[in-house]
Predict the structure.
Amino acid sequence: MHKLRHICFALLSLSFAASTHADETRYISDDLTTYIHSGPGNQFRIVGTLNSGEQVALLGVNDSTNYGQIRDGKGRTAWIPLDQLSDQPSLRVKVPSLEQQVQTLTQKLATIDADWNRRTADMQKKVAENDSTLQGLRNENQGLKDQLTVARKKADADAVQLDDKQRAIIMQWFLYGGGVAGVGLILGLLLPHIIPRRKRDNRWMN
C-alpha cells in the first residue's frame, strides 16, 4: 500500500512536470535509431523505436531523469532521453530543402547567364551598328573633302582661264586703240596734202 502511494505520487509529479511545458517541435538526432519508453527512464518498457531525423512534438520534460515526453507522427506518446532530441531540423529534413534551394539557384544562374548573354549580344550588335554608322560618316566626309578639292582645282583653272581672257581682251583693245590711233595719224598726215591740192585745182578751173 505504501509503495502504491509512492507510485501514484511519482505519476502525479510526472504529470505535473509534463503539463508545465507547451508542445515544442523536436527532431530525433541524425546519428541514431532510438528506443522510446513508456515512462521517463530506461527502466520503463520499450514501446517502439524512432528513426533519426523524424519530427516529434515535445510535450513535457522530467528534469530528474532528463527525459522528455514526445508524440511522434503516428500519434504515439512516449518518453525519450533529451540528449537524443534536437531543436534543429535534421539532415533528413534539410537535405531535400537544400537540394531544392540548389535547384532554384541553378535555375536562377541559368536565367542570369542567358540574360547576360542576350545583353552582351545586344551590346555587340549596337557597337557593330555604331561602327558601321561611324565608318559611313567617315566615308561621306572623305567624299566631301574630295569634292571640295576638285571644286577648288576647277575654280583655280577657271580663274586662270579668266585671267587669260582678260589679258586677251585687254590686248585686243590695245591693238584696236593702236590701230585707230595709227589710222588717225595717217589721216592727219595725208589730209593736209589732199585737201589744199583740190582747192588749187578748183581755183584754176574757175
